[in-house]
Amino acid sequence: MRSSDGEKNRVDGTSSVALRRGPARHLRAARSWIALGVLAPLGMLALSAVMLFDLRRDAWEKAEQTSKNLLQVIERDIARNVEIIDLSLQGIVDTLKMPGLADMDPRLRQLALFDRATTARDMGVMLVVDENGDTIFDAKTVPARRVNNADREYFQLHKARPDHGLQISPPLISRLLGEPVTVLSRRIDKPDGSFGGVVQASLKLAYFSALFDRIGLGQDGAINLYLRDGTRLMRYPAVEADIGANIAGAPTFQRFLAERSGSFTGTSVRDGIERYYAFTQVGDLPLVLNVALGTREIEAEWQSKAVGIGLAILVLCGLTILLSLLFGRELRRSADMQAELARLAGTDLLTGLPNRRRFEEAFEQAAKASRRADRPLALLVIDADHFKRYNDRHGHAVGDAVLKSLAKSLTESLRRPNDLAARVGGEEFAVLLPDTDRAGAARIAEAIHAAVAGLAVPAAGIDPGSITVSIGLAVSAGDRATEDLYRRADAALYVAKESGRNRTCCAPGAAEEAPERPPTRLTAAPQRRVAR
Known about the structure:
It is a single chain. By secondary structure, this protein is of the alpha+beta class. The protein folds into 2 domains: 232 residues, PAS domain (Beta-Lactamase), CATH 3.30.450.20; 151 residues, Alpha-Beta Plaits. It is built from 13 helices and 16 strands. The strands form 3 sheets. Strands 1, 2, 3, 4, 5 and 6 form a 6-stranded antiparallel sheet that branches. A 5-stranded antiparallel sheet has the order 8-7-11-10-9, sandwiched between helices. Strands 13-14-12-15-16 form a 5-stranded mixed sheet, with helices on both faces. Helix 1 runs antiparallel to helix 7, helix 9 runs antiparallel to helix 10 and helix 10 packs across helix 11. The longest helix has 93 residues. The protein is rod-shaped and about 165 Å long.
C-alpha cells in the first residue's frame, strides 16, 4: 500500500470502525431506554395497585367505624329504654309491699303504682296480674281491663323460678292492643315468699322499627335484635316472617354468643348474602344486637374508583409500553440499516469479498496480534494475469465474471475462519493468513493456483486453464515489524510477474542472506502497476 494513499486509508478505516461501532453503541443505549420505558409503566401499575389496595382498606375501615358507631348508638337507646321500663317494674313490686295499699283510693293507688312508667317510649300496656294470671291493676284504666295471661310463657317461668329476675319475652300479639309486642316482666312474691303474680309491661315492636328506620344501611344492610336463645325480636328491613324466627343453630349467631362483642365477615343463613357483622350484647340484658353491612356495598364505591383508575392507568401504561416497543422497533431497524451500511462500507459490491478498507482494518488487527503473541503473519498478494485482455477482448461483463470467479476460488481455498480474502484493487486481491508460516502460506498459494486453473467462462470461449494468477508471498515473524509486510509481498508479486506469471514468489525474510529473486527488485519500493 502506497504512502500517498496510506493516510487516507487509515482515516477511512477509522470511519468504517466508527460506522460499525456506532449502531451497536446507540442500540445498547436505546435498549436501556426501551427497558426503562417498559419497566416504568410496570412500576406505575404496581404503585397503582398499592394505592387501590389502600383505598379498599380505607373503605373497610370506614365501614367498620360506621358499624361500631351505629351499634353503640342503637345499643344505648335500647338499654336506656329497657332500663326505664325495668325500673318501673321494680318500683311497682316495691310499692305493692307498702302497708295499707289495698285501702287507698283506687286512683291514688294507681298513681302510686305507675307514676314511673310515663317516661318510657312506645310502652304498650303495664299490668299487675295475680297468681292466677288475672289482671288486678292496669296503668291505663281504673278498674283494670280484664284479661288472663296465665298461659303466657313468661308467667309460667316466673311461677316456676322465684329468682329469675327480669324476663323479656319473644314477640307476641298483645291481647289488649292487638299488635306485636315483647313483654318485660318481674315476679311478685307474697309476704310468705310464695308466688303472688307478675308485674308486666309490653314494649311495642314498633319502637325498634322506628329506631332502625332512621338508619340507612344500603340494600344489603340489616339490623337485628335477638334474644339470647336465638329468637329474633326485630329486623330491619322488617320482614314479617323473620319476626319470632329462631336462628340459634346458625354459625353467625353461635359467634354472637361466643363473644360479647366484635365483628367478622360471614354469609347469612337467611338470604345467602355475605355481610360484615358488628355485634354486641345490650348491657346486661339477654339481648344481642348486630349491624350488618353488605360486603358488596362496602366495596361498591371503591370498585367504581378502582375500575376508573385502573382502566386509565392500564390505558396510559399500555400506550407507554406500546410506544416504547414501537420506538425500539424503529431503533432496531435503524441499527440494522446502519449495520448493513457498515457491512457494505467494508464489502466489495462486485465480488462480495471484504474491500480494501476492511482489509486494512483486519491487517492492522492481525499485525498487532502477531506482535503481541510473537506469532508469524503471512500475506498473499494476488493479481490476475493479463486481465486487461479480458476486458478489451470480451468486454467488462466478462471481466466482471472473471473477477467473481477468482473471488470464489480464493474463498474456497481458505481453510480457517480467521483467514481473510479481500479485493484491494481492480484485479488485485490479498489473502491474510494469521499464525501461518511460509510453508503453510505456500500451501494456500498452491491451492489457489489449483482452484483458478479450473475456472472457465464458456460464454466467452474461456476454457479451464486460460485464467491464471501471480502471487507474491511474504511472512513477518511476530517479533519483527509488520509495517513493510505488504510492500515485501507486493515486491514478490512483481518478481512473479516478470518471471513468467502463473506462479508464486516468496519475499525473503529480513534474516535471509539470499532472496529467491534478484534483491534489487524485492527491496525497491513497488511502483504503481498499470496492467499485468
